[in-house]
Design goal:
Blueprint lengths: L2 E6 L8 H15 L3 E5 L6 H8 L4 E3 L5 H11 L3 E5 L7 H6 L5 E4 L11 E4 L16 E4 L8 H6 L14 E5 L8 H11 L4 E6 L3 H8 L7 E6 L5 H7 L2 E5 L2 H8 L4 E5 L5 H9 L4 E5 H6 L5 H9 L1 H14 L4 H10 L3
Parallel strand pairs: 1-2, 1-4, 2-3, 4-5, 5-6, 6-7, 8-9, 8-11, 9-10, 11-12, 12-13
Helix pairs in contact: 1-14, 6-7, 9-13
């Protein structure tokens, strides 16, 4: 049995996006008969550690130097390694490649020093970019390589979503496994400021965020529930008339699910992906989190339209569903296992 290692970022400040897309690839690689081991600091985000462990995947604590990586990967008896990191010392990549171990690196635009036999950029419009590649590397780019977990694929509608008439629209909002930038309360305030009725559920990964959400002043006809991180995310999205999330890896999940997606750009490295997603017409843009923090009314016009116009919500849902077919992980897993 082939053994594949996954070295990815995770943490209270970094979030769990890297873990979640690596889990999607891991599910497909395991379906093809390989064994997985994650190398990351999952213990710092218990919910992420649980997601890995419940899939029966072993976890090793992260190491950091090139020498430690080479030693660990040798001890684990790996046949290939997947990297997904913004923070890794760039010297790790050539050190591992020099051992002859096949490598695949998941990147987002800027390679950040990543070197691998296969580089995967699953972002919208990435196929239009032409970054200089490390020697001997091939690049897989664009939405046809979006990697989605079993949970998402199982809930993908078989046919394009229809318009849904709702006098009081259901809203679901989440901002990654940690909501590291505290977007939830500002989005809730922006929703309340519209004055439009809604029935919203917002994910709060910490007690502080939950308290701030509970303190939002609502208007007549508006209802807000606060929940902790959930492993029923796809089902929640499917039930909602409108889903609000941070622009990032979860965007592609929403599009595949046929959600009416409204995005907030919470951090600078999301700006390009945010703008490209909104420009397709498959997602609505609520702007920069920094703007919402200054004035929640900056998203008022867009939110009012989404809450009041079922036809617009349906149009967005169908456009997203058509963009992401859910087979990206099959294509990436095939490229990885062909290296071994």
């Amino acid at each position: 049995m082939k053994r594949v290692g996954v070295r990815c970022d995770v943490g209270p400040g970094r979030g769990i996006g890297h873990v979640m897309r690596c889990l999607a690839l891991a599910e497909e690689v395991r379906r093809r008969g390989a064994e997985l081991v994650f190398v990351c600091d999952a213990h710092t985000v218990p919910w992420a550690a649980e997601q890995i462990a419940t899939r029966g995947i072993a976890i090793e604590r992260a190491v950091y130097s090139p020498e430690e990586h080479v030693e660990l990967f040798k001890r684990l008896g790996l046949d290939a390694v997947v990297f997904d990191s913004y923070d890794l010392d760039a010297a790790v990549y050539p050190a591992v490649r020099a051992t002859g171990l096949p490598t695949l690196a998941i990147v987002d635009g800027d390679l950040r020093g990543a070197q691998a036999d296969v580089l995967v950029d699953q972002n919208l419009g990435a196929e239009q970019d032409d970054p200089p590649l490390p020697s001997g590397s091939v690049r897989l780019a664009g939405l046809q390589y979006v990697m989605l977990r079993d949970e998402i694929l199982q809930h993908r509608p078989a046919t394009p979503p229809a318009d849904r008439q709702s006098a009081v629209p259901k809203v679901f909002a989440f901002f990654g496994g940690t909501d590291a930038f505290g977007a939830g309360p500002y989005v809730a305030q922006a929703l309340a400021a519209t004055g439009h009725p809604f029935d919203a559920t917002v994910v709060a990964p910490s007690p502080d965020l939950a308290a701030r959400l509970a303190a939002v002043d609502l208007q007549p006809g508006q209802h807000l529930d606060v929940i902790g991180p959930t492993d029923q995310l796809a089902a929640r999205v499917r039930e909602a008339d409108l889903t609000i999330s941070a622009s990032g890896t979860s965007t592609w999940e929403l599009l595949c699910l046929g959600a009416t997606a409204a995005l907030v750009c919470v951090v600078d490295n999301q700006v390009m992906g945010y703008e490209r997603a909104v420009d397709t017409g498959a997602a609505a843009g609520l702007g920069l989190l920094s703007a919402l923090q200054q004035d929640t009314s900056s998203a008022d016009r867009t939110l009012k339209r989404l809450l009041s116009d079922p036809a617009e919500r349906g149009r967005l849902a169908r456009a997203g569903w058509e963009l992401v077919d859910g087979r990206g992980r099959e294509r990436v897993a095939g490229a990885l296992l062909r290296l071994t």
